[in-house]
Design a protein that fits this description.
- The complex is a heterodimer of chains A (175) and B (115).
- Helices cover 44% and strands 14% of the residues of chain A.
- Chain A has 175 residues and is α/β, with parallel strands linked by helices.
- Chain A has a single domain (2-170), classed as STAS domain (Transcription Regulator spoIIAA, 2-Layer Sandwich), CATH 3.30.750.
- A 5-stranded mixed beta sheet of chain A has the order 1-2-4-6-7. Chain A has a two-stranded parallel sheet with strand order 3-5.
- In chain A, α3 links the parallel β6 and β7.
- In chain A, α2 crosses α4 and α4 runs antiparallel to α5.
- Chain A is globular and about 55 Å long.
- Chain B is of the alpha/beta class.
- Chain B is 39% helix and 31% strand.
- Chain B has 4 helices and 5 strands.
- Chain B has a 5-stranded mixed beta sheet.
- The N and C termini of chain B lie far apart (37 Å).
- The model of chain B has no long low-confidence stretch (mean pLDDT 94).
- Classes of the chains: A alpha/beta (175), B alpha/beta (115).
- The interface between A and B is medium-sized, with 23 and 19 residues.
Chain lengths: 175, 115
């Protein structure tokens, strides 16, 4: 990722999956809390995105839309044909700005840094059950909120995740 | 990733569907349709052999839960066989193994319907 004075840049290399969606969610939330409202996500080197990863991006788009600021946007750039079809299938092309071309980088270039724990081949700790369930649930809720046509596709899984999270939270502590 | 395809075998009252490739947000509908077609012919005992499965996404997992519940209403089930470890870890982490029975051995899976 890289940050300029008014824009956050994210480059996705390899697969964007539920396994590296949590660091992306934390990072984008943190940037939004710091006032950033413009995000560019370069998916030119992204070999695939699962629904959780797309749901996290949709979440950023939904939050920015709630703000109602005209300069706010999530822009996906260097979008290949397969990823474009995926975005269209989920209706995210109407929430996010989708660009197939390579954008101009800001004057002075970008200082890229790796987002910690985003490399799924070398995660520093195992995924936490509740955290992962919560992440997947909110990501899929975002997809449904972004486009109601996603409801039939994901409503069984969101119900299952919501119920199991609820059950675990209501379980008495073993301590 | 390989294209998704399904091979179907009948073993007595049980249908064995061998899955290969990726069950993603496009292909899950084909799996759902195949199983529902069997339901419509009154076959509710289904085993999904996942040995050659590369990936299963949320839509596919949701579909399996729905199908298993529906099969149980009719005295059957949808059970999983030879789930690759990387996929098993995910479905176990998310709690799907509590509602979907998973077997490592084909005979064991087939016999599970007898009990």
């Amino acid at each position: 990722m890289a940050t300029t004075a008014d824009e956050v840049w994210v480059r996705v290399v390899g697969r964007g999956t539920f396994q590296n969606s949590q660091p992306l969610r934390r990072f984008t939330l943190d940037r939004m809390q710091h006032g950033y409202r413009r995000f560019t996500v370069d998916v030119g080197d992204c070999t695939g995105m699962d629904s959780t990863f797309l749901g996290v991006l949709a979440g950023v788009g939904l939050r920015l839309r709630q703000d109602g600021r005209t300069d706010a946007r999530v822009r996906l750039v260097r979008v290949g044909q397969r990823n474009l079809e995926l975005l269209q299938t989920l209706g995210l092309d109407r929430l996010l700005v989708v660009v197939q071309e390579t954008p101009d980088e800001p004057a002075g270039g970008l200082q890229w840094e790796w987002l910690p724990d985003s490399d799924i081949e070398s995660l520093s700790k195992p995924l936490d059950k509740d955290e992962t369930t919560d992440l997947m649930l909110s990501a899929h809720d975002n997809l449904i909120q972004a486009d109601q046509r996603n409801a039939p596709r994901f409503q069984t899984v969101t119900k299952f995740l919501r119920d199991s999270l609820e059950r675990r939270r209501n379980q008495p502590s073993s301590q | 990733m390989r294209d998704f395809h399904i091979e179907r075998e009948q073993r007595g009252a049980i249908y064995l569907l061998r899955l290969a490739g990726a069950v993603d947000m496009y292909s899950y509908a084909r799996l759902d349709e195949q199983v529902r077609q069997l339901f419509s012919q009154n076959h509710h005992r289904i085993i999904l052999d996942c040995q050659n499965l590369d990936y299963i996404g949320s839509a596919g997992l949701g579909s399996l839960v729905g199908l298993a519940k529906e099969a149980r209403v009719h005295g059957g089930d949808v059970r999983l066989l030879r789930v690759p470890e990387r996929i098993y870890k995910i479905i176990e982490l998310l709690g799907f193994t509590k509602v979907l029975q998973v077997f490592h051995d084909e005979t064991e899976a087939l016999n599970s319907f007898a009990s």
